[in-house]
Amino acid sequence: MNSITVSEVGPRDGLQSIDSLMPTAAKLEWIALEHRAGVREIEVGSFVSPKLLPQMADTAEVVRGAVELPGLTVAVLVPNQRGCEAAIAAGAHKISLPLSVSETHSLKNLRRDHGAMLDEIRACQALVDAEPAERRPHFEVGLSTAFGCSIEGPVAPEQVFGLAARVLDLGVAEIGLSDTTGMGNPAQLETLVTGIWRRMGDGVLTGVHLHNTRGQGLANVLKAVELGITTIDSSLGGLGGCPFAPGASGNIVTEDLVFLLESMGYSTGIDLEVLLQVRHAVADLLPGESWYGFAAEAGLPRGWRPAAASVA
Ligand code: ZN
User: Fold this and answer.
1) Ligand 1 centre from 210 Cα, in Å?
2) All domains of the chain, ordered by start, with CATH?
3) Does residue 84 have an active-site annotation?
4) How many A from CA of 203 to the centre of ligand 1?
5) 84, 124, 149, 242: which one is catalytic?
6) How confident is the model over 33-90, as pLDDT tens digits?
7) Which long-range contacts (CB under 8 A, 24 or more apart) does 46-53 make?
8) What is the reported pTM?
9) What is the 147 CA–ligand 1 centroid distance (Å)?
């Protein structure tokens, strides 16, 4: 049976796009509840300036709490070397640094061109390499705006391949692809994934971060898992609604993703019935926020069986 890692990004991607400030204890409760439902990878926060994102000011504390949960991969986002230092100090297992394929987007968001970002990445890789093997976190660079940029428009696959090669040349073990703007489609995803695998090897790309801004999220997921991608990012209740389209979800909804995968026989290790209860519990912790998702609205169909039960 094929298994897929569902990487929950709600406590980072979701919380940083809403106004509510979630107390540290509530974040840790959310993380523990998803862990209990079987989620084994959670992006718990990001090490950015608390002035920029006050929602993420307690990330070190959240990491230190989350690493106590057995079998959980605790992932964080960092924008630069300073963030990477803090992530290593806190004990994060997985560190992702976003690098925008669109240089205009990079300059606008981080005020850094590709050269400056690659310097940060080189410094982060050196920090990671300096850690003893048993404590060394997994470091990856997420190529954002890989499917298109809200400022530049279309992004050519050659741009993605070129930047991916420059990142890997720095000794980075893995890159990811992010559809930051929700412009991607399955054919494009196939071009990008197979293009990177053919040029740089299968092992360098195993995960994708897709958005549902234009309703293509699960179609893109289906193409990704059929190609052999093994980690898919998503957010509980689709938290982190897209600011450009009120009422539409930005992130893929974890509950719907688990329903799709388990129904098709891909094992996620997640108990969907428990996860649907977790959704309600977390919604209570975040009053006033919008929650998305069809599986939760409609409920599980009569006689529905998860992947593991179908094989047994
Ligand atoms: Zn996202």
Assistant:
1) 7
2) 5-311 (3.20.20.70)
3) no
4) 23
5) 242
6) 999 999 999 999 999 999 989 999 999 999 999 999 999 999 999 999 999 999 999 9
7) 46/12, 46/16, 46/76, 46/77, 46/78, 46/79, 46/83, 47/76, 47/77, 47/78, 47/79, 47/82, 47/83, 47/84, 47/86, 47/87, 47/90, 48/77, 48/78, 48/79, 48/83, 53/16
8) 0.96
9) 13
